[in-house]
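Predict fold of CPBP family intramembrane metalloprotease; 263 aa.
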Amino acid sequence: MAILKQFGILFVLGSVGIVMFTIASIPLVEQKLAKLSPEILEKVPPLGILMLLQGLQYSILLAISILIGIGCAYRVGLSSHLIDHWVFHTAKSPSFAVEMKWSLGVGAAAAIVLLLLDQLMQPVLPEALRAANNKEPSWLNLLTAMFYGGITEEILMRWGLMSLLVWIAWKGLKQGVTLPSQGIYQGAIVLAALVFGLLHLPATAAIVPLTPVVIIRALLLNGIVGIAFGWLFWQYSLEAAMLAHISFHAFASVLSGLLARLA
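Predicted 3D structure, encoded as tokens:
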């Protein structure tokens, strides 16, 4: 029963992001369909079916990641406040307020660092990517980034992948008697952040060809925030990583808007 409760809590949270991501993806899918020849288009399922299949694909990936995290996270000292409270009925952590401050601070710092790095790299980036970066996001895209990125991606990358990497190294190095060493956590944080960066390459490839500079930029920027969110998951909780990721997108949107007005 406890496993079902854990799964239900995280699946509902993650599904909100998937629904928003699916809705936000409709214009891009429509653009791709418009480029197809009539002969090929006849063989393609209707737009509604395509979006349902996309949502189903992400939902399956979410479910797998949740189950992996349920099996691995608590065994290696990684946790979630929601699960602690609603499933295990533990008392609220006395450091919760400090944790939230750290999350907001990391989110703000990450937004500033990434915007500065992105500005430094602007001269060597393709024109199409510069134009995409300077375009002010719609409210739907911003909310999608906050909910899908801040919640769903954290369940996938930190709760699922990072927990699994820590558990594999912990078992492989036969540290099963005690909690994993710091090196294991740090290695898992970096590896999960690298995967996080690699998974953003398809979105970049939809805008410009993947040249070495474009790839380095995607891995560097996403890797930095991935490491920051992974550190928060290790030191505090899944919710700390989520809040930092959500606040990162919020701060980045505000700062980007200010820079655009000053330019």
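Residues 2-262 form one domain.
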